[in-house]
Amino acid sequence: MGGRVTRAVRNFNVENRASREISKEKPTPAPRHRTARLDTVTDSPEIKEEVLRRDDRFLNLLKDVYVESRDPPVQVKDGGGEHLPSKQEEKRLTKLGHLEALDVKKVSKGKISLVEALTLLNNHKLQPQIWTAEKIAAEYSLELKEVNSLLEFFIPFTVLEFPKETKKAITSHKPKQLT
Predict the structure, then answer these.
(1) Per the UniProt entry, what is one GO biological process (predicted)?
(2) pTM of the predicted protein model
(3) Cα-Cα end-to-end distance for the chain
(4) 3-state DSSP call for residue 98?
């Protein structure tokens, strides 16, 4: 409702206001400083002559300048305990089985792919005695603390199928009619 009111006020007498603004005389701009105008500088013949004139003294000085460049001799550092950290991480092949086409082929040690995470969570859920946290940590090169947190806080979804008898019971139930 408020939008309609503001639109009506904003559009009131728009044409008259626009024609009034257009018919006003334009204000004269403020005068510019002499040095700010480039066209006056390029028009003066003294400046053009000074720019185009060759100065023999400067040319002779320029001819005397000779630059010779040499690379400093390469010094191999001894190492001395200063090693830069390497960006290469150890990688391991993923353990995916028949889902190999869905995920990455190599992951860094200490990390798992999404398909591997779902697989290990499902294995632990179905067989918790076999797939313990220690076995999962050893199998996937993970820390035991992280595996315990993973098993505690992440639970895979379960799909429940209702038996056909209950479906018939639900569909055969007739809704009450209002009187």
Answers:
(1) mitochondrial respiratory chain complex I assembly
(2) 0.38
(3) 41
(4) helix
